[in-house]
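chain below, 507 aa
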Amino acid sequence: MAIACVATRASKGVDAPSVTVEVHLSNGLPAFSLVGLPETSVKEAKERVRSAIINAGFEFPMRRITVNLAPADLPKQGGRYDLPIAIGILVASKQIPEKALKDHEFVGELALSGHIRQSQGLLPVIVEARQQGINLVLPLENRADAELVGYNRVYFASHLQGLSEYLHGQSRLPGIESGLEWIEHEKEESQSCFSEVIGQYHAKHGLEIAAAGNHNILLLGPPGTGKSMLASRMMQLLPPLGYDEALEVATLHSVAGHQIQPNAFYTRPFRNPHHTSSAISLVGGGSVPRPGEISLAHRGVLFLDEVVEFPRKVLDCLREPMETGEVVISRAAAKLTFSSRFQLIAAMNPSPCGDLDNARATPDQIQRYLSRLSGPFLDRFDLTIEVPRLPEGALTQENKNTETSSTIAQRVKLARERQLNRAGVLNSELSGKQLKELGKFKQADLLFLEQSVNKLNLSIRSFHRLQRVSRTIADLQQSENVERNHIAQALGYRAMDRLLNSLKTSY
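prediction:
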């Protein structure tokens, strides 16, 4: 009985579950049946595999061929099953020895000529193979993915004929050459710097606090005051990713079909979606669920420019992921979880006319404009900073006493190290219990903060967020305890609350 079993892996979010390709050759009229919940792209593998086997110089068996992709309840999509199906047919027809398949897995799409083409989303497959300690055969064009993982039991094939020679023991396949040394660890030198931003010292310090504690921040100001410029320079303040974090980010991008460049492997992602983005593109989903912008910004920054122009329902979809650090996408066939621990930076104008001083906008119009952002969504921001127009003469004066990005980044690095040594997490991730045990607040100062929160009509969530910001300000100043002036400074970064309260008093 001609049966062959070839191991491969499917794609299920950031996971790569094992799949066994079972091939059975039986007597009867020539036919090619493919079962096991294959989608259209997998069903088309029959024609690709047939032509690839013939054009690679093998004999295509003129028998009844049944291919089963087990387990049958796992959906399969893409061309990654072409190679294991072809190997299974060649083994079942005795053209490749069965013993050569031991401890091997195969993934790859076949061209009609027999060449093995690149497949998308293989980083989870390589990570899983490393954990299982098995030999993995991939397309040569996927070498970059394997180099990121640095697993030395990955082998690359460019043609079905060459792979057959390897399985017959007649030749060797190329493997990892340089491993992790191939990846640049140093940050790329940026052409922009904080020193180029004229004035806006209050906003710069706010971004420094946000970078040090990984806090969400809202920039509020008229058009052309430098909000987008400041946000784009935020990446210069953040330290590079560690290897495990970088591999986690690269896996999400691989699943989304994006290629990670070696020189950007350790760089934190910066995502800047347009305000016309849908909820699915922002959060993730689709018929075949893929990560959205918030997951692609994992361990990095998500910048929402003109945040008021985003649909309110779309923004409210961010509320839960901002708290939990992950997004759960449920479909009839599967329930997938994508990490989304990002830092949110948003920018907006204070009125529909762009400036509060513009007489065209009444308080009622400004109120309706600001109400496009729901209260619970605004509650997720730790800091809201005013970015005002520059005073007269600021543009022509020499820009003195302005720190460079590298100087600020060094302070941010030291503050982050203090936080990690104290609690193992950054201040934005501190729980209420950790704030109480490790925050080092005086009871009188907490009472002062509570009274301020009540006066500003803020929520309990804001009370804890203000504590976290105060703790970060103290860390930047290398203070062991949180003092009253740190709390007062944190309260100074609540520009939106002051604006909303001023509108209420204007009626």
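The chain has a mean pLDDT of 91. Residues 451 and 457 are 10 Å apart (CA to CA).
thats it, cya
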